[in-house]
Amino acid sequence: MKKKIWISAIVLLVLLAILFIPIPSGVYKDGGTREYSALTYKIVNWNRLTENGIYTETKTYWFPDNFKSIDELWEEEAQTMVHSFSATVVELSDDYVVVQPLSDQAEAASSDRISFSIRGFAQIGAQVNALVQVSYTGYIRETYPAQIDAVSWSLISMERQNYTGQWLDPENITTLSGNFSNDLVITEIYADCFIATPMIPLPFSEVKINGEISEKWCVGDQVLVEYENYRTSGNRMEADLLSIETSTFQIDPEACYKPVIYLYPEETTQVSVALELNGELTCTYPAYNTGWEVTAAPDGTLTDRSGQTYHYLYWEGNVHTQWDLSQGFCVKGEDTAVFLEDALAKLGLTRREANEFIVYWLPLMEQNPYNLISFQAQAYTDVAKLNISPAPDTLIRVFMVWRASEDYVNLEPQEFSTPERRGFTAVEWGGTGF
């Protein structure tokens, strides 16, 4: 009898151990997360690398969650994590806010515009161009503007801080000597530099100018900047400030601004590109000479004979034509981003191509009461003929003509037919305003 009792006790202890005593069951290459499992629960010592640093937390997951994989548990964990970032307010209403993440924040890689609801939040006295700290849970939803579930926001002291991010890719920097000047729109201001976007098309879409500027300059100011020690990497440029003054730039209605050409062959291919322009080229990158000769990869990376790589071919020029404005759209300035996102998708641009289009033109358009917008077809292709060899199977050319308007104008709307991308695809977008 005693023997049976002992056997029963041992079996019970073993069963209890299996049910309730966790044993090491995994170490993950995510930063060092460790997992301990029993039959009824699981303990996870999270030590996971995220875009905002290392997430460290110890959590217990009871039946049936203990049978979920580490990736499934992380999906749930990420929904409860609180993330924070610094941003500039670009649009503000009673119910929602649209902000632009500062360029050294991880969220800036997701979108240049992020919106969130402020219903139920206490008033913090924020205004457009104010610097704020935003906290949110879950993921950034990929719309435009992107969306988050904010849990709080607060004003950041207007005392300027030093820039702490890495602006250029140190493995791929091109340097030019001499002094240069450009018209820019200030988007961020730090104690030791400022960030801006070009008012006229350039081979890069973002500029970091090193040097302290006066307190009189604010985000949104249009400035003429002279600089030296010009360095570029990808679509970014960095330089050192020589002088800054108010810009008097006006859009030239005869100029074709920032047409850029993307090439997507089905396999790595030597490609020649030439322009027949009824006008004059004013700027190209890489240098045009008598045409571009590049090696194009299926992902769109272009490589010239010297081994330098590019995202696209860039040109700017003056053309002699009359734009066709018999059809188009009249769009509120505040609705321009949403309109362009929808229109560009219908015209055949990918999300990345459309994003590069929008972030270039939006600063010039969104503050206007209205924008008259027309996408040109024959009026553009007749004066800017594009010759590509070998000939692409699909050619998409998007050229926008627009002007600001104080009043609503009734236009006959354009209809779009979305092209199907087949085989070797070439894409070009550009525009002009007046």
List the helices and strands and how they pair.
Layout: H1 2-20, E1 23-27, E2 34-37, E3 41-50, E4 53-62, H2 70-80, E5 82-92, E6 96-101, E7 114-117, E8 131-141, E9 146-155, E10 174-189, E11 193-198, E12 206-210, E13 222-233, E14 236-246, E15 255-264, E16 269-277, E17 279-285, E18 292-296, E19 302-303, E20 309-310, E21 313-319, E22 329-332, H3 336-347, H4 351-365, E23 370-376, H5 378-381, E24 384-389, E25 394-405, E26 425-433
Helix pairs in contact: 3-4
How many β-strands, per DSSP? 26
Q: How would you write the strand order of the largest sheet?
A: 17-21-15-26-25-23-22
User: How many whole angstroms does the radius of gyration measure?
Assistant: 27 Å
Summed over residues and divided by their number, the pLDDT gives a mean of: 85
User: What is the molecular shape?
Assistant: globular
Structural class: mainly beta
Helical residues, percent: 10-25%
What is the beta-strand fraction? Answer: over 45%
The low-confidence runs, each spanning 5 or more residues with pLDDT under 50, are: none
- Contiguous helical run count: 5
The largest sheet is: 7 strands, mixed
Question: What separation lies between the terminal Cα atoms?
Answer: 101 Å
Question: Could you characterize the architecture of this molecule?
Answer:
There is one protein chain. The protein has helices spanning 2-20, 70-80, 336-347, 351-365, 378-381, and strands spanning 23-27, 34-37, 41-50, 53-62, 82-92, 96-101, 114-117, 131-141, 146-155, 174-189, 193-198, 206-210, 222-233, 236-246, 255-264, 269-277, 279-285, 292-296, 302-303, 309-310, 313-319, 329-332, 370-376, 384-389, 394-405, 425-433. It is mostly beta strands and 434 residues long. Helix 3 packs antiparallel against helix 4 (351-365). It is globular, with a radius of gyration of 27 Å. The strands form five sheets. It has a seven-stranded mixed β-sheet with strand order 17-21-15-26-25-23-22. The protein has a five-stranded mixed β-barrel with strand order 5-6-7-9-8.
